Amino acid sequence: MRQILICITLIFLVGQSVGQHKKNIQKSWVKTSIENLSERVVAPDTVYTRYTFNKSTLNISFYPAWDDFKQTWAVTNNKLTIGYDTYTIDTLTDSTLTITLDGFRRMKFMAEDYLSNQDTHLVLLGQHNGRPYYKANHYITPRYTGKTNFRDFLQKNVEGYNIKKASYFRLTFIVTENGTIEHVKIINSITEGFDKEITKQLMKTSKDWKPATFQGKPIQTEMFYDIKYLNSLTPFNRGGLN
């Protein structure tokens, strides 16, 4: 009887541990560093990366304001499986996450909600509609919530403009506290038709944005979107933050 009780207790404790890990990890994490654990020399990874763990899916993004692709994930004890890779969870607190893939790399993250509350990340740009607006950045940023890929949606109708030389397009826009798009400004034009088409598609995403927040309150932020054409067939997209 005693052995049965011990087994039941262990199963309960393991279940609690797994459940706690899964609950604590379900938020957005911004990568702060990567340590190379392989024998191969690799260049430092300085690319912005955000992992957002939802109940059943993981959104991975290389741009703060929108998601790029989805992946599966699961937690078993202190093991975190992402797709086909299984990491060891080294640390997991309210604000920090460290995971290690043996023989490959160790990644350290900080919680986005922790980073977005830091005064040092809040940069005032001016006034819009009588209220302050701020510079969107890696930590304080609005989030596109539409069902389509943001970049593909903006560029889906511009192929017909037949760009024949290297070109650079850039615009800025403000995402208000209500998630609407306002104050669109063309900074670098390609052609009048191209500019109008991108602007038209951008305005269609109004209300498909979750506004940036600072210390729990929504704020207005200015972002940019740009496209670099290396030639008539190859757009190089960046976009997002000034």
Question: What does this 3D model show about the protein?
Answer:
There is one protein chain. This protein is an alpha+beta fold and 242 residues long. The protein folds into two domains: 2-112, Lipocalin; 116-237, Fusion Protein Consisting Of Minor Coat Protein, Glycine Rich Linker, Tola, And A His Tag, Chain: A, Domain 2. Helix content is 19%, strand content 42%. The strands form three sheets. It has an eight-stranded antiparallel barrel. Strands 9, 10, 12, 13, 15, 16 and 17 form a seven-stranded mixed sheet that branches. The termini are far apart.
Features:
Fusion Protein Consisting Of Minor Coat Protein, Glycine Rich Linker, Tola, And A His Tag, Chain: A, Domain 2, 242 residues, single chain, Lipocalin, alpha+beta, 7-stranded mixed sheet, globular
Write the topology of this structure:
Blueprint: H1 2-25, E1 28-36, E2 50-53, E3 57-61, E4 69-76, E5 79-82, E6 85-92, E7 96-101, E8 105-111, H2 112-115, E9 124-128, E10 131-135, E11 143-144, H3 150-155, E12 167-175, E13 181-188, H4 192-204, E14 209-210, E15 212-214, E16 217-229, E17 235-237
Parallel strand pairs: 10-16
Antiparallel strand pairs: 1-2, 1-8, 2-3, 3-4, 4-5, 5-6, 6-7, 7-8, 9-10, 11-14, 12-13, 12-16, 15-16, 16-17
